[in-house]
Amino acid sequence: MQVLLKKVTIIAPESKYHLKKKDILINKGLIEKIADSITTKSDITIDQKNTMVSIGWFDLFADFCDPGYEQKETLESGIASAASGGYTDVCLVPNTNPVTASKAQVEYIRNKSSIVNLHPIGAISKNLEGKDLSEMYDMTLSGAVAFSDGKKPVQHSGLLMKAMQYVKTFNGVIIEIPEDTSISKVGLMHEGPLSTQLGIQGKPAIAETIHLNRDIELLQYTDSHLHVTGISTKKSVEMVRQAKKQGLNISCSVTPYHLLYTDQSLSTYNSLYKVNPPLRTEEDRKALLKGVEDGTIDCIASHHFPQDWDAKTVEFEYAKNGMITLQTMLPMLLQASDKISLERWISMLTDHPRRIVNQSQPILAEGEIACLTLFNPTATWEYNAASNKSLSANSPLWNQTLKGKVLGILNNKQVHINE
User: Fold this and answer.
1) DSSP letter at 328?
2) Where are the domains of the chain?
3) How confident is the model at residue 14 (pLDDT cuts 50, 70, 90)?
4) Angle CA(11)–CA(12)–CA(13) in degrees, nearest 5?
5) Cα–Cα dist 296/153, whole Å
């Protein structure tokens, strides 16, 4: 199959074509030609004003709920959501049933890869119980790209220390959500004036920073590699910034919704904004954006956590945490800030996350395999039941007109074009 991209602006800082407007011809999955003008017959031609192209987007932390919770999402529907949102690669958390804690489970996920590459994150502990180390080395040999207990951060310091020491033997990485559950367990939202006003038990920011401080101390002791995902507080940004200045091998990511929303979104008890870590204050949100601007925050992680209708349409106290984000990532980031350049956003979706989990970087050049995302930052589209690819609909952007449209992806000699 031949695909011709006409007059697309290339966003790829590593490429000699960066910020140039070119025609690109892809033939049988390879970038055959890049030139000012290409005239040829093709099976698919993309010729839209303001179209941009980058290497394929890579997500570090998503849940496709399969196996075990297929009523929320399946690997197939997750792939459809990712492809429609511009992603060619997604790392999946181990919080499934059975848990991704063995060679067989890693291979099950990897074998479902298609136009989107699925990268399993292996569990740190057996059955996510936080007691004993899982078969980490076997999972690495089978294709696990990192290790984490996913949505259940490791509370046992000794276990996490052992995991950090163990992954050093194969240049692995530990991924942690910073949360001390002994402090935050009963909380439903950020602890502050609004939680008091609403009469809702809160999760104090200190539950995050105490856990993060512990993880940084363990990282310093083990000289390992730690990635912290979902940071949500001003102090967390500063702690990571200082750890980097000390030369520690630490990286961090933020979700799109922590850049876009605050705890004020919960003033009407709207469970669509109930997430973990919780939405924090406007001061925290601005500090996160500053961390994106100055490079303290390395990448954007979707934290795409589907929930079925029953899990959200209940009293706020009983509603489950989570928001779906893969399909709406581009408009969410564009809404979050107009001060951060498009180049910065794209770097945080492409090369930065790949470096964190030691994945090879696609190259946007002639003769290279096409791993590309096409998007138009000015185009609009309707996000609703007709366009949604997920099995779940837990997004506050539902039934809205969104600015920033992904046109499609090319990967693994396959093509997906959005309608």
Assistant:
1) G
2) 2-53+364-417, 56-356
3) confident
4) 115
5) 22
